[in-house]
Structure formats: C-alpha cells, structure tokens
C-alpha cells in the first residue's frame, strides 16, 4: 500500500470563487442562494415538506473529475469569517475507523469503496418506509451548499463547504409516527471492503443517533458532496450525516439505514467507551473529555490554537433544543 503525504497545489480560499470556471454543477445557483441564507444563519425553521411525489429532476451532473482539485464554492469563509479549510486537507485527514485509525491513510484505504449503486433504507416508526437510491435522493431533494465548522472530539477542527439537503426533508417524506422519539443511523457493514470492520475492538456496524427534534433541526444535513463535488469515500460517500453543533463522531459516514425508533439509540462510541462518549456529544468547552480538555482546538491549516465555542458556534440556533437540561450531565 502506498503511504505518502499528499501535497497538492494550494489555492487560497480567496481565489477559489471568482477565478474558477463554473463547471456544470447542477443546481449550483440554488445552492448559492441557499448559502446566503444559511451563512447568515437566520431563522432555521423547517422549510416545508418535499413530497415523495415530486417529479425526479434527473441525476446530479458530476464533474467527471475524480482528481484532487476542489470544485466551485459560493463563499470563502463561514458566517464567522473563518476561512474554508483547504480541500486537500479535508480529503486527506480523516477519521473513518472502518478502514484504519490512521487519519492520513484513510484516503488511500477507502479509495476503492463502491459507492454506486447505493441504497438507503428508511423505516422504523414511519408511515411511508422506503428504500431510496442515492440518485433519487439527489434528485428529489434540492442540493444546497452549507458551510459548517466540524469539531472533532480529538480537538481539531475544519471549516467545510458541504453540499446536501436537510434531513428534515427526508423525514417529512417518510412521515414519522407519533411514537417515534429518536433517529438511528447505520453505516455500511462490509468487512471485505472495510477491513477495519474485521477488528473486534468495536461493535460494527457504526451506529449513531439523534433525538427527533435534533434530527429535524434545519442545520442537520445529509451531505452528498463538498467543495462543489461529490463526496469522496474518505469523507463518507455517497451519503453522510453532518451535525455541526456536535462532535464530529456524530456525523456518521456512508449511511445505508435510517430508522425512526422509540428509544435512545446506543452509538458505536457509547457501546465501546460509555464513560467517554455520551449520546448528546454537544460541543462544550466547559465539559472536558475524561482524558483531555475541550476548551480549545487546533484549526487545521492554522498555527496555534483557538478557543472552542459552545455548541461549536451554533448556540443561537440550537440552545433552545436543550432548555432546562444539564449539558454537562448529558455529555
Ligand atoms: N462510519 C463512520 N463515520 C464516522 C467516523 C467513522 O470512523 N466511521 N468517524 C467520525 C469522526 S470521529 C469524525 S471527526 C468525522 C470526520 O469526518 P471527515 O473525515 O469527513 O472530516 O467522521 C465521523 N463519522
Ligand atoms: Mo472525531
């Protein structure tokens, strides 16, 4: 296996937007429009249902370029003015234990993961269970760009321009039953393709969960791409969750199953180290991990450290989800 550190051509974020020639990214303009709203993080209410009966709009055009260059993005910073992390860093510094625990080797190990065809089973306590082809998900739900901070519990962070659609749109389409209180997500289980799953250190497949109101929050995204391109395997292709106010491990990759359930799901991390990883995992600088502080973080691409923000900087949007709850107790 080839293990070498990649050193791509570095493009300053400030140059990405204007100079790049627009390359047939379907719905890019809608994405840009959605971005200006989400970049300001204004009112984050549900935006209405997208019915299953919507006419398919055809397959997303891919760039046909599996190379290591970023595609078009709509802004060079997040809403706090922080620069986007370089594409090269986002695709070469990864956590994906199904392949390896070595962050700089994941991209090589995961390169051949078959991400097409791909189906996602959505069921459990819903009125309209269904099996969705990834192409249908892309076609049925408008793909928008969302620039989010990603904060790993290991205390490094990035700013990533995702492409995807809010989970609440898919939930509205399947219609959760009144008894549903939580959403449970599962990653592909395929030890032949994912050699890390042969390790008995973890109880595979990777599982994560959200409370239903968290899952329905407009910030909660199902991502299909980043930097204007389809996701690469190392980032969780073809479909991964992104919950920007929680530690990165909640943002489960390569999802094959989404279930509405009536009890709090036990995640892979809760099962493997219950004293270290809780269900909520909201970013909280005042609640240290048992083995290290969470007060500051290392932004990939920057020197030095920066202070960690409560709820990863999304406090205004999400604090009301936890009114009256003990955030240190619900770690
Ligand atoms: N299936 C699966 N999802 C996963 C992980 C994993 O090991 N397996 N790692 C998590 C962790 S710890 C982080 S920080 C993020 C990293 O996402 P990135 O590699 O796209 O930056 O993915 C999360 N999702
Ligand atoms: Mo992480």
Briefly characterize the structure.
The chain contains nine helices and twelve strands.
Structure description:
The protein has 331 residues and is α+β, with helices and mostly antiparallel strands. It has one domain: Sulfite Oxidase, Chain A, domain 2. Helices cover 17% and strands 19% of the residues. It contains 9 helices and 12 strands. It has helices at 13-19, 28-40, 87-90, 106-109, 134-140, 167-174, 212-215, 268-272, 315-318; strands spanning 119-124, 130-133, 144-151, 156-166, 182-187, 207-211, 221-226, 229-230, 240-242, 255-261, 296-299, 306-307. The strands form 2 sheets. Strands 3, 4, 7, 8, 9, 11 and 12 form a 7-stranded mixed beta sheet that branches. A 5-stranded mixed beta sheet has the order 2-1-10-5-6. The longest helix is centred in the first third of the chain and has 13 residues, at 28-40. The chain is globular and about 50 Å long. The chain starts with 12 loop residues before the first helix and ends in a 13-residue tail after the last helix. The protein binds the ligand Nc1nc2c(c(=O)[nH]1)N[C@H]1C(S)=C(S)[C@@H](COP(=O)(O)O)O[C@H]1N2 and molybdenum atom.
């Amino acid at each position: 296996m080839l293990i070498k550190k990649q050193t791509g051509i570095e493009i300053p974020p400030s140059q990405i937007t204007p100079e790049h020639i627009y390359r047939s990214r379907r719905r890019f303009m809608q994405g840009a429009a959605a971005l200006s709203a989400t970049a300001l993080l204004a009112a984050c209410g549900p935006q209405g249902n997208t019915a299953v009966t919507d006419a398919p709009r055809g397959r997303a055009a891919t760039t046909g370029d599996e190379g290591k260059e970023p595609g078009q993005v709509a802004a060079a910073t997040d809403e706090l003015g922080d620069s986007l992390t370089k594409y090269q860093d986002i695709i070469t510094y990864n956590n994906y234990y199904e392949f390896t625990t070595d962050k700089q080797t994941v991209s090589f190990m995961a390169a051949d993961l078959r991400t097409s065809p791909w189906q996602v089973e959505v069921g459990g306590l819903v009125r309209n269970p269904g099996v969705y082809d990834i192409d249908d998900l892309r076609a049925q739900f408008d793909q928008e760009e969302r620039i989010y901070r990603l904060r790993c519990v290991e205390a490094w962070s990035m700013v990533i321009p995702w492409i995807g659609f809010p989970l609440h749109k898919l939930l509205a389409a399947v219609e959760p039953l009144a008894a549903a209180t939580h959403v449970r997500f599962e990653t592909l289980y395929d030890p032949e393709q994912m050699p890390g799953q042969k390790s008995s250190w973890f109880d595979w497949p990777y599982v994560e969960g959200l409370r239903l109101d968290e899952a329905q929050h407009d910030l909660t995204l199902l991502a299909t791409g980043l930097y204007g391109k389809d996701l690469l395997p190392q980032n969780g292709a073809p479909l991964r969750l992104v919950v920007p106010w929680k530690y990165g491990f909640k943002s489960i990759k390569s999802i094959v199953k989404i279930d509405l359930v009536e009890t709090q799901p036990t995640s892979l991390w809760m099962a493997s180290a219950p004293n270290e990883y809780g269900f909520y995992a909201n970013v909280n600088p005042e609640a240290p991990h048992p083995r290290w502080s969470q007060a500051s973080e290392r932004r990939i691409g920057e020197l030095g450290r920066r202070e960690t923000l409560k709820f990863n900087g999304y406090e205004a949007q999400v604090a009301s989800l936890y009114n009256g709850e003990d955030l240190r107790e619900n770690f």
